[in-house]
Design brief:
The protein folds into two domains: 154 residues, Alpha-Beta Complex (Aspartate Aminotransferase, domain 1); 238 residues, Type I PLP-dependent aspartate aminotransferase-like (Major domain) (Aspartate Aminotransferase, domain 2), CATH 3.40.640. Helix content is 40%, strand content 15%. It has 14 helices and 17 strands.
């Protein structure tokens, strides 16, 4: 069945908002997406009907227990995790990573080695650099090819050794849009006896994610990047989580996942996650019939969710192709990412570009004046921007369409850029 963009857009009230009568075009999605009305409704209902701490005998506390349990199960289904007890909630991916790095670091000894990626957001870089500094570990860097914007995994083989303890890499780049073969990376790390920590913040919103198939030990993501509330989610392999010493206050539970959830969580945010996953389930049930065949091995909702993500990726690839082609036709523009038509399956629709004469900030400001929302700068992808040689010159303009965007919006952006460059 054809992708029903009108039905999708009708579920997002923010898409109809205007500023002094001028429409908005949301291409700022890699930093945070808009939400369906059902997400806001679920958060409101939680605040009004389940506003209590967990574990009490009274009704609001029981309601809160149900909200959290439902969210753990929803995320377990979304990531195809073996158990809901492996789902840990937190403020955001960065906070979860900084927190968990303290526990993971206790497994290592001075002189042990960790491998970090030069393609990652700093949230999957600097927490580990700080850990290595404090524990006298050796940091080794996995480079990417600035010509292809992809890893050469032979370089990973050269870095892995008998003292490698941890490999950290992103599922997709938040600047170049490259999708990394995290399954292959995890397999090589596992063969070397190393743990793997996957930053799925930019991949989970765009591609079906199966932590069991990936074979990682940890995967972390943020629901506000996939049409939900500001909330962080971590999946950890049970046996690894249980081997860690949690940093917590004494009265807190000693069992997973609660022992890694410091303080009272945002139950309203967690309620929003349930509604977010239900939105994807709606996509799977109404628009993704042709994509379910590859997920027949998954039961019920898990099959619908993964089929939904394949459906959305297929549509988003159309947007990405139109965007890349349009940018390449503009004089002075360089796309900082994969552009080959036969390689579009290896990128998410996040597309960054630079111009020979115009600064990224000036382009972003001019587009904002026209109601077109984009980001500029290094976008916390410090090592990426340095590798590409754009860190000191202001980074890049980042355009991030998602499945609620249209081809017409892509064309309007290209037309606006053409006028801006000509002027």
């Amino acid at each position: 069945m054809p992708f029903d963009l009108a039905a999708v857009r009708g579920r997002f009230p923010a898409l109809a908002a205007t500023d002094s009568g001028r429409r908005r075009i949301y291409f700022d999605n890699p930093a945070g997406t808009q939400v369906p009305a059902s997400v806001a409704d679920a958060m409101s209902a939680c605040l009004l009907q389940a506003n209590a701490n967990l574990g009490g005998y009274f009704q609001t506390s029981r309601n809160a227990d149900q909200v959290v349990d439902a969210a753990r199960q929803a995320m377990a289904d979304f990531l195809n995790a073996p158990s809901l007890d492996e789902i840990v909630f937190g403020q955001n991916m960065t906070t979860l990573t900084l927190h968990l790095s303290r526990s993971i670091g206790r497994l290592f000894s001075p002189g042990d080695e960790i491998i970090l990626s030069q393609m990652d957001h700093d949230a999957n870089v600097w927490p580990w650099v700080l850990m290595a500094r404090d524990l006298d570990l050796v940091v080794r860097w996995l480079p990417f090819d600035p010509g292809t914007f992809e890893f050469d995994l032979d370089k990973l083989d050269e870095l892995l050794g008998e003292r490698t303890r941890l490999v950290c890499v992103g599922g997709a780049s938040n600047l170049t849009g490259t999708i990394n073969d995290v399954g292959a990376i995890c397999a090589r790390a596992r063969a070397a006896g190393a743990l793997t920590y996957i930053d799925g913040v930019q991949s989970v919103p765009h591609i079906a994610t199966d932590v069991q198939a990936i074979g990682c030990d940890f995967l972390v993501c943020s629901s506000y990047k996939f049409f939900g509330p500001h909330q962080g989610i971590l999946w950890g392999r049970r046996e690894v989580l249980e081997s860690l010493e949690p940093y917590k206050v004494r009265p807190a539970s000693d069992t997973i996942p609660w022992c890694f959830e410091t303080g009272t969580q945002s139950h309203e945010g967690i309620a929003g996650i349930v509604a977010t996953i239900e939105y994807f389930e709606w996509i799977g049930e109404t628009q993704a019939d042709g994509f379910s065949k590859d997920w027949q091995h998954l039961p019920g909702r898990r099959r619908s969710l993964h089929a939904a993500m394949d459906c959305l990726f297929d549509y988003e690839k159309t947007l990405a192709t139109r965007l890349v082609d349009g940018l390449q036709d503009l004089p002075g523009v360089t796309v900082q990412g994969i552009t080959r038509p036969d390689a579009m399956d290896r990128r998410v629709p996040t597309v960054s570009f630079t111009h020979a004469d115009l600064a990224p900030d000036s382009i972003a400001a001019a587009l904002a004046d026209q109601g077109i929302f984009v980001w500029s700068g290094h976008n916390y992808a410090v090592e990426v921007a340095k590798t590409l040689g754009i860190y000191d010159s202001g980074g890049a303009v980042r355009v991030g369409p998602v499945h609620y965007n249209s081809v017409a919006e892509i064309d309007e952006l290209i037309n606006s850029l053409e006028t801006l460059i000509a002027g």
